From TrEMBL:
This is DUF3018 family protein. Residues 29-64 are annotated as: Disordered. It comes from the Bacteria. Pfam families: MazE-like (PF11455).
Length: 76
């Protein structure tokens, strides 16, 4: 029987074959009574590479058709 790690490895390999890449974002445990650090600082640190990167027209062309207008309820 394959291990959970083998299953995850297979899943990630399947996604990579589709041209996708995992981008882990770590967040604070909201159930921890004594959280460590500043949550906003963690978000700022993790999002910095995206913030300073050059715009990618091909990437934006991919994202826009999948965007949903949560306030208007229509596909943008």
């Amino acid at each position: 029987m394959p291990s959970a790690l083998d299953g995850m490895r297979e899943y990630w390999e399947r996604l990579r074959r589709q041209g996708l890449w995992p981008v882990p974002i770590w967040v604070s445990d909201v159930n921890d009574p004594e959280p460590d650090g500043d949550p906003q600082s963690a978000v700022d640190t993790q999002s910095a590479p995206v913030t300073i990167s050059e715009p990618d027209p091909a990437g934006q062309a991919f994202v826009e058709p999948t965007s949903y207008d949560w306030f208007g309820g229509t596909i943008v």
